[in-house]
Design brief:
Radius of gyration: 19 Å
Bound molecules: fe (ii) ion
Distance between the termini: 34 Å
Largest sheet: 9 strands, mixed
Length: 310
């Protein structure tokens, strides 16, 4: 696949300083530039900018070379979608999600493999006489990379066309009238679109080593402020990943995840069309209503009609 990963998100929030401190706690590392953060493997992957209401300002997608950019440009031409092109980028605005997607030439990720945890299972003892490695970890959890973003679109069909036919994303799974899971890498999903009455950023998701680091990361966040808790610990059905969602001070959810399905050979993956009952999770506590319909949705709708509130 000529596209190979998400490079970064630019999140607009009204309260940049407060939100920056949240993502520092979350384990992202501040760079030398204000309000920018990097992950362990992905480099700079989060930039915070001031906007009147919270929203995704820009999403970066990595491509290999100029030929890939040319292919994206000609596909956008076919759809009649305008774009800006430089030597290293093609940027286009998606009306439904309100975001600019910038496809840029970027290095592929080469991730150092995480150690494989040893589990004692029925009939098979892998860790004889030793305590579990996870309980001995004392370092803070630092996300390895930005994995995916979930976006509400006011025009689901045109946003899907934009990502699939325009940019070259692929559909991994879908839930009719609810969600389209799309990938631009071997991860099961990098962008998930939901039809919503207002364009907004539902969550960003950040990969950690394993389920213990999902739990350790969230526990540290909740020790600092229990109000951050949103939903977890659980395991998704679609994508299979372990998850724990927290809420930043602007109202965006951020997810620690591990063990997501990987689609390395497109021919060996059969995209599924799933019922709504499978859409959310395989196990875990029931999701709070505020996860499905964030509490500030009405305010975001009002703000979206105000041309000054960008
Ligand atoms: Fe997610």
């Amino acid at each position: 696949m000529p596209l190979h990963r998400l490079t970064r998100v630019v999140m607009g929030v009204p309260n940049v300083t407060e939100v920056a401190s949240y993502y520092r706690d979350f384990g992202l590392t501040p760079t030398t530039e204000d309000h920018r953060f990097s992950t362990v493997d992905g480099g700079e992957q989060l930039a915070l900018v001031k906007t009147a209401r919270r929203r995704l300002v820009e999403l970066g997608v990595g491509a290999d070379d100029a030929d890939d950019l040319g292919r994206v440009a000609s596909r956008l031409d076919k759809l009649g979608i305008s774009y800006e092109r430089t030597d290293t980028t093609v940027s286009a605005h998606d009306r439904g999600t309100g975001a600019v997607v910038r496809v840029e030439i970027a290095e592929r990720l080469a991730q150092r493999p995480a150690p494989t945890p040893l589990y004692n299972n029925p009939g098979s003892v892998a860790r004889a006489g030793a305590r579990a490695d996870a309980i001995l970890r004392e370092d803070r959890v630092h996300p390895r990379k930005l994995g995916h973003v979930v976006l509400g679109s006011t025009d689901h069909e045109s946003s899907q066309r934009f990502f699939i036919d325009g940019l070259g994303f692929k559909i991994s799974d879908s839930v009719p009238d609810m969600a389209t899971f799309m990938r631009c890498s071997s991860d099961h999903h990098n962008v998930l679109l939901q039809p919503t009455p207002v364009a907004f950023l539902h969550h960003t998701s950040w990969q950690v080593d394993d389920v213990d680091d999902v739990g350790r990361g969230a526990t540290a966040m909740l020790e600092a402020d229990p109000e951050r808790h949103t939903w977890g610990l659980g395991r998704h059905f679609i994508g299979s990943n372990f998850f724990w969602y927290l809420r930043d001070p602007a109202g965006n959810f951020s997810e620690y995840y591990s063990d997501m399905d990987c689609i390395v050979n497109d021919a060996l993956w059969q995209p599924g069309v799933w019922e709504a009952s499978k859409a959310l999770y395989s196990w875990g506590p029931p999701p709070p209503p505020s996860f499905l319909a964030p509490e500030d949705l009405a305010a975001l709708m009002t703000g979206s009609h105000d041309p000054d509130a960008r």
